[in-house]
């Protein structure tokens, strides 16, 4: 999700930047209940997981969960076809309560191997039917997406790119906060930040002084 025309153009620019690595990329976003088809480097939402005893926490195979999920796009599944290196997949997993479930929810972020650009963010809730199953209750597959937890709410971040921006250097960031209500995530808040274009490698006042002493 973006705020205003500039942010929309930024997402389109990022799509072009990533085209070489992900041909045919097409952002998909949906939200809803488990029965319906349901946010970057250096600026991912801060994780705020509910404290859980290591002994009681039952971890899931996030890669297998994504591969078996019909709501996950073919592009993301192709990214998970093999590890980036050794047995390391480009996946980050957070266990936290964002849906009010007694069992921890599973927040999964998928990135590209080469640039660590977010290409998918998902929330899985323990299935009401019981057993070891999980339901996909949130998914966002727009470029540069990353999801985390902020004070018990779901926080989704997307970096925005302007014309000429490199993949490493976005122009800004959109952050949307969602709260679980009536068996679905509802948007609670949204804000946009424009990043400074100054860098530590840029010329300083001393570098521009050409006067002779």
Annotation keywords:
five-stranded antiparallel β-sheet; single chain; disordered N terminus; four-stranded antiparallel β-sheet; 3 helices; 213 residues; mainly beta
Principal-axes geometry comes out as globular
Q: pLDDT under 50 segments (min length 5)?
A: 1-55
Total DSSP E strands: 9
- Using only CA atoms, what is the Rg? 19 Å
**Overall SS class:** mainly beta
Number of helices: 3
- String of helices and strands: HEHHEEEEEEEE
Draw up the topology in text.
Layout: H1 4-17, E1 29-31, H2 62-67, H3 74-79, E2 91-96, E3 105-111, E4 118-126, E5 134-140, E6 145-150, E7 153-160, E8 172-181, E9 184-194
Antiparallel strand pairs: 1-5, 2-3, 3-4, 4-5, 6-7, 7-8, 8-9
Q: Can you tell me about this structure?
A:
The chain has 213 residues and is mostly beta strands. Helices cover 12% and strands 31% of the residues. Strand 2 (91-96) and strand 3 form a beta hairpin. The longest helix has 14 residues, at 4-17. It is globular. Residues 1-55 have low confidence and may be disordered.
In brief:
The protein is mainly beta.
